[in-house]
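Dear Dr. H.,

I hope your travels went smoothly. While you were away I took the liberty of generating a structure for the chain from your last submission, since the lab meeting agenda had it listed for discussion. I wanted you to have the full record in hand beforehand rather than looking at slides cold. The sequence, exactly as received, is reproduced here:
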Amino acid sequence: MARIMMYTTGFCPYCRMAESLLRSKGIEEIEIVRVDLDPKQRLEMMGKTGRRTVPQIYIGDKHVGGYDDLARLDHQGELMPLLVS
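The corresponding predicted structure, in token form, is as follows:
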């Protein structure tokens, strides 16, 4: 399975939904980066993604976006190929 990294906060419902969706696909390990605990991480996230909102999800080196983007990939049948690559 691909490496998953997700920028998140402790109070974000979309972050929990994204984590739940990934776990339902068999992902056991997700690297969580809490941007609410470290402002430098938020700046890093914004610099890398151009976005201010969480979650921001990476599958391998590919930035897939937020929860809506992740759910859209799943709905279109494109998520599993990314996860197993």
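Two observations you may find useful: Strands lie at 4-8, 31-34, 56-59, 62-65. The mean pLDDT is 96.

With kind regards,
E. W.
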